[in-house]
Amino acid sequence: MKLPWTFLLYTLLAAPALGLEPPRPRMQWLMGSQALDPQGRPIASPGQQLVEFMQKAWPEVRHEILYANGKRSVQLLMDGEPACHVSLVRTLERERQLLFTSTALMPPPSVIVRRDSLARLPRDAQGAVDLPALLRNPAFKGALVSGRSYGSAIDPHLQRAAAALPKTMSYFSPNDFGGKVLLMLQRQRIDFTIEYEWILGMMDEAGQSTSQLFALPIQGAMALSPSGIACPRTAWGEAAMRGIDKALSTPAGAAMLRKSFMPSLSPALQARYGPALEAFYKRRALGRPDA
Questions:
Q1: Whole-angstrom distance, CA of residue 224 vs CA of residue 265
Q2: How do residues 113-161 score in pLDDT, each as one tens digit?
Q3: Contact at 8 Å (CB) between 112 and 213?
Q4: What pLDDT score does 70 carry?
Q5: C-alpha to C-alpha distances, 237 to 64, 87, 107, 153, nearest whole angstrom
Q6: How confident is the model over 162-181, as a mean pLDDT?
Q7: Distance CA 236, CA 8 (A)
Q8: 211-214: which pairs have CB atoms within 8 A and are 24 or more residues apart?
Q9: Exposure check for the chain: N or C terminus, fewer CB within 10 A?
């Protein structure tokens, strides 16, 4: 795979002397801290698998991982830091400021609660949570990850609640993008949070039983939303994105993305969204993920 010309130019300009092989340019990947299993071994996440694939598919650059929480990661990208995030939800606001290439279609986040709160939740006949009613209820204390987007169907409700009812929700900036908030819920420090259902499976794999936690759908938030690699809107970011897209716009790249994500979805989610997800990975292999 050929290195984008911008990277080559930067590297050649930095070469210390004629005849010396220039150092490989650096590619920084932003992501949350890696989860560990009960034996202290790293649990493979989609982000980790992405970086491992890129190391093989794009060996002309030196790939490094920079661990940072969500709020810090987004700020680094907005400031033009030469780094790309392995996975951010795509929103119109972010797309105005960052470069994206889609790597997944995400099933919507769920309201996560303990078993002892189920009967008190405002839900419809299908079991979906009335999120505005929940946010207005002072009997429920919620917590979310600061600086994170939960999708276009959910973010407006959270923004209105933050302005009108600032005491009903707390915000945190954990390095793991949400796992510690779920631990707070388990320990009864809060009553609910909003998270992807498949994160519960990752916590179980890490030895943190989530048997008392339930993921419930949110009214009006049933659509898949694009998520992907985000890079700064700079010359560096454009060059990085060309290299990333070249590696992922292949059958091998699309297969890696599918294999790293699909098994984490519950059978119910795979049944509901499977056809749309399979069509996405076919487009991804052809370099048309947003077609």
A1: 13
A2: 999 999 999 999 999 999 999 999 989 999 998 888 899 899 999 999 8
A3: yes
A4: 83
A5: 16, 15, 28, 29
A6: 75
A7: 11
A8: 212/114, 212/115, 212/186, 213/112, 213/113, 213/114, 213/115, 213/182, 213/185, 213/186, 214/112, 214/113, 214/114, 214/115, 214/118
A9: C
What pLDDT shows up at residue 8?
A: 46
Nearest to 258 by CA among 290, 283, 222, 236: 283
Determine if residue 87 is left, alpha or beta; phi over 0 gives left, psi from -120 to 50 gives alpha, anything else beta: beta
Contacts of 17 (CB under 8 A, 6+ apart): none
CA atoms of 104 and 171, how far apart (whole Å):
26
The total number of residues written for the chain in this structure: 291
Looking at per-residue confidence, does 70 or 213 come out higher?
213
- Give the integer Cα–Cα distance in Å for 261 and 135: 30
67 vs 277: CA distance, rounded Å: 28
Residues 193 and 181 sit within 8 Å (Cβ to Cβ):
yes
d(CA 224, CA 176): 23
Question: Residues with Cβ < 8 Å from 164, sequence gap 6 or more?
Answer: none
Short-list 241, 235, 240, 232, CA closest to 79: 232
Distance CA 188, CA 79 (A): 37
Tell me the two tokens of residue 234: 């700079």
DSSP string computed for 179-190: HHHHHHHHTTS-
The one-letter amino acid at 65: I
In this structure, are strands 98-106 and 83-89 parallel, antiparallel, or unpaired? unpaired
Structure tokens at 224: 């898949």
86: Cα within 13 Å, side-chain hemisphere:
28
